[in-house]
Task: inverse folding
């Protein structure tokens, strides 16, 4: 990092993998100066790596990186790189994150961080030993409506929280002709929809309510075979006609009963969580409903800028009020001037980049961190054990998370 004469701080950025998410991280860094000019942090896009020559070229000519390489180790060894975004496929996250920590680079990594609890813990230990800042791609927690919901709960506006219901239903694999990408192969992806979507939902629950202590889970694989997709030739959205069929090795659907702990407002709360990648109808219906003794609220990503709230038990007109995200909720006012003009998915990544770089600069650590990822992965691993053994499983508390634990 470099402190400039005008008081601003320049932070050198490295990128590993220039796919859709890598492009999104890059745009988020570039947009910081426009959305948060008072922040005084100036990301400098220094070095990108991708094994595909066309993407490496794109990193320089389109995204604005100063140089590009085919080997990610060159990014980690670059003395002008202070932070690195890890946007490679899931099975490479842990390997690269551990290498980044050992190289002394602060890192922002997409989830899941590892193919299960063990790999995630290895990253956590490496980050702690190196003393680097970590940030995790739990983007849904940054929606202004979610930030407002978190505050309502903490302030006791909904009363004592009794139960939560959450779902993350997507249709990206609803077509049985959908390609057998790496996401369906266990040694490349680990779990299926548990790690992919349920991990996000677990984070939302823990961020707003507190730690999940116990789970009882069930899973199913709806399509046991899919047409093979050669590595690097497409995405998990691809549809293949008359392809060679190969087995799906992980789950399409997962459901969990959960019991929470550790938060005075939500102590002993229970709930149900579901995730599916083969739902027909929902496109990206990622929702959470929270019920308390004095009210309730629900949010759905497909209507990201809305929150439905019912409060004031005994009021003359009970029921839900649609509340539009507006200035005063999270960082909404820095993106849009008033309610009704919506923020988008990309904006959540700008907020994520801001929180990450603030922590790197030694300011408030409001970013999700590797301990949050470890806690979520523990819950997912407990769910896998529970589904296999058909019994309740526990998840131990993790120190250093941003879970909503009351003081």
Result:
């Amino acid at each position: 990092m470099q402190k400039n004469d005008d008081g601003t701080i320049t932070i050198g950025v490295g990128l590993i993998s220039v796919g859709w998410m890598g492009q999104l991280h890059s745009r988020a860094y570039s947009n910081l100066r426009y959305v948060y000019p008072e922040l005084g942090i100036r990301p400098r896009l220094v070095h990108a790596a991708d094994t595909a020559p066309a993407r490496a070229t794109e990193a320089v000519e389109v995204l604005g990186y100063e140089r590009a390489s085919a080997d990610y180790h060159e990014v980690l060894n670059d003395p002008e790189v202070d932070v690195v975004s890890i946007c490679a496929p899931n099975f490479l996250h842990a390997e690269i994150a551990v290498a980044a920590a050992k190289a002394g680079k602060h890192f922002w990594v997409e989830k899941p961080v590892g193919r299960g609890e063990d790999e995630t813990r290895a990253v956590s230990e490496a980050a702690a030993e190196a003393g680097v800042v970590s940030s995790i791609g739990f983007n849904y927690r940054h929606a202004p409506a979610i930030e407002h919901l978190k505050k309502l709960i903490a302030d006791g506006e909904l009363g004592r929280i009794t139960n939560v219901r959450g779902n993350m239903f997507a249709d990206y694999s609803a077509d049985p002709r959908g390609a057998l990408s790496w996401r369906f192969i266990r040694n490349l992806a680990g779990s299926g929809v548990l790690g992919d979507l349920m991990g996000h939902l677990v984070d939302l629950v823990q961020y707003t309510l507190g730690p999940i202590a116990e789970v009882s889970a069930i899973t199913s694989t709806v399509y046991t075979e899919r047409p093979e997709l050669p590595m690097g030739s497409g995405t998990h959205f691809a549809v293949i006609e008359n392809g060679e069929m190969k087995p799906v090795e992980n789950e399409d659907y997962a459901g969990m009963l959960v019991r929470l702990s550790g938060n005075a407002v939500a102590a002993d709360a229970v709930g149900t969580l579901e995730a599916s990648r083969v739902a027909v109808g929902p496109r990206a219906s990622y929702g959470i409903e929270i019920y308390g003794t004095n009210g309730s609220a629900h949010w759905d990503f497909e209507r990201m800028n809305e929150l439905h709230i019912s409060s004031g038990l005994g009021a003359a007109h009970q029921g839900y009020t649609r509340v539009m995200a507006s200035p005063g909720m999270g960082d909404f006012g820095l993106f849009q001037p008033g309610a009704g003009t919506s923020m988008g998915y990309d904006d959540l990544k700008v907020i994520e980049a801001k929180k990450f770089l603030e922590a790197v600069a030694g300011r408030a650590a409001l970013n999700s961190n590797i301990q949050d990822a470890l806690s979520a992965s523990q819950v997912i691993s407990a769910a896998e054990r529970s589904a296999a053994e058909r019994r309740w499983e526990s998840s131990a508390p993790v120190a250093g998370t941003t879970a909503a634990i009351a003081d």
Observations:
- The mean pLDDT is 94.
- The first helix runs from residue 20 to 35.
- The first strand starts at residue 2 and ends at 3.
